[in-house]
Amino acid sequence: MWGLLHIIFIISPVIFVIVLYLLTKDKNKETLYKVGFYISLLAVVLLIARNIEIFIVDNYKFSGELLPLQICHFANFVLLYAFWKKDQAFFALAFCLNLPAALLSIIYANSLTNYTTMFSIRAQVYLWGHMLIVGITVWALLVDLIKIDKKTLIKTLKLMVILYIGAIFVNNLLSLININSNYFYTLRPENGTPLEIFFNLGKTYSFGFFEINFIYLILTSLLGVFVVIVFYLLYFSFYRLKNSKKVKLQLT
């Protein structure tokens, strides 16, 4: 971590956004939606390739890694649906939740240390997948495809609550059939991330097969809401700044 290759990984979304923006800035909205859709489809294909490798390496056994319900895995389908249906609630989810989650996965890329080589399909999908999630979401913002208002934000927060609570039950139910999963990190945090602080503040209680750390879940959900609101405010500030520049140009 924090070596030259990690620094290149961190700045890779910036390079991607600049190149894609320059190539598409003069295109019409319909073309932009299509570009976003096909790049998101590419990200989904990469995720499928990752899952095929995991399935083969695990001797063709099903595991929790194969279900694309982690925040960043799920983000690929959120973006795909958002571009396909031009759905602003899903764009808001991608920008306010998936984008910061993918950014954290790039900055705190500790999961990459689990791979013996960076040339495996799984490692490469981690690199390209997270870069695409961040890059395509920021690009969609720059080309004015994302429109978030308060109504959309509330709808997105409701969707987040459903996904988060659902992940708690799915993770515990899968444990009944000996499938280890940790979707949305509701059971435990990713090692080496700030979420470990919240986990250590609480205690995991067991009710039969059902495990839950109340303090960790409460603090993590509050952090999630805080991050979403912060990114909404960033979007709002960006939108106002962009419009104010347009007004100034028209006045001059």
General description of the model:
By secondary structure, this protein is an all-alpha fold. 71% of the residues lie in helices and 2% in strands. The chain has 8 helices and 2 strands. The protein has helices at residues 4-24, 29-57, 71-85, 88-107, 121-142, 150-175, 195-201, 214-251; strands spanning 205-207, 210-212. The protein has a two-stranded antiparallel ribbon. A hairpin with a 2-residue loop joins strand 1 (205-207) and strand 2. Helix 1 (4-24) packs across helix 5 and helix 3 (71-85) packs across helix 5 (121-142). It is globular, with a radius of gyration of 19 Å. The chain starts with a helix and ends with a helix. The mean pLDDT is 87.
Name a few traits of the molecule.
8 helices, two-stranded antiparallel ribbon, 71% helix, 2% strand, 252 residues, mainly alpha
**Share in helix:** over 70%
Compute the number of strand runs.
2
Spatial strand order of the main sheet: 1-2
Outline: globular
Strand content: under 5%
Helical region count? 8
Mean pLDDT: 87
Rg, alpha carbons: 19 Å
Question: Tell me about the biggest sheet?
Answer: 2 strands, antiparallel
The end-to-end distance, rounded to whole angstroms, is: 49 Å
List the secondary-structure elements in sequence, H or E. Answer: HHHHHHHEEH
The low-confidence runs, each spanning 5 or more residues with pLDDT under 50, are: none
Structural class computed from helices and strand pairing: mainly alpha
